[in-house]
């Protein structure tokens, strides 16, 4: 982080902000090590920038250990962006500011937009928060996520094509490779597994630069029976492919 800030300054620019996901999903599902963000955020603040936490994917208890991805790292963002899970399928998103970040903007900038909102997605978002409290969703995600990862690790333990099973909560990545030692990505194999699962009515996707990481991100309503069904289906595919 310090190197990036220094490079900006050498070119005559000051750091404005650090925007980062609480889980690097497009890179291949990287959620650890816990705490790595803290030193980065301190560097950003020291350089006069703000920390913007993108919680669109890692928020709303997706990682199980906390309601928000940034909370796992013991940091407080200046701005938090969120969406997708908020309305359980209805289009709604949100942004939260620390007062000292937004007050000056509100005083000095005339801001408007032409978006015509609706009270329906807002009502849905409020209902989603009620369900989180009533059904103790975070604890359910934590427990079922552990069971899901443990099952996947057991199924793939002897496979020469699985480099790693990683993730937290209901956010799991399985890195598929041509060789465990070289870790050369195997996109074709990942595509085959994804399509085989789809044929069995189980939907996942691929991620990472090499598109070789199975991205397993089930709905937060996933329960123990769903975990069992997923593992049984995945085991059948793995028997043929992995």
UniProtKB/TrEMBL annotation:
InterPro entries reported in the protein's UniProt record: Aminotrans_3 (IPR005814), Aminotrans_3_PPA_site (IPR049704), PyrdxlP-dep_Trfase (IPR015424), PyrdxlP-dep_Trfase_major (IPR015421), PyrdxlP-dep_Trfase_small (IPR015422)
Protein origin, superkingdom: Bacteria
Sorted UniProt keywords: Pyridoxal phosphate
Ion transport in keyword set: no
Similarity section: Belongs to the class-III pyridoxal-phosphate-dependent aminotransferase family.
Name of this chain's protein: Aminotransferase class-III
Source species of the chain: Lentzea roselyniae
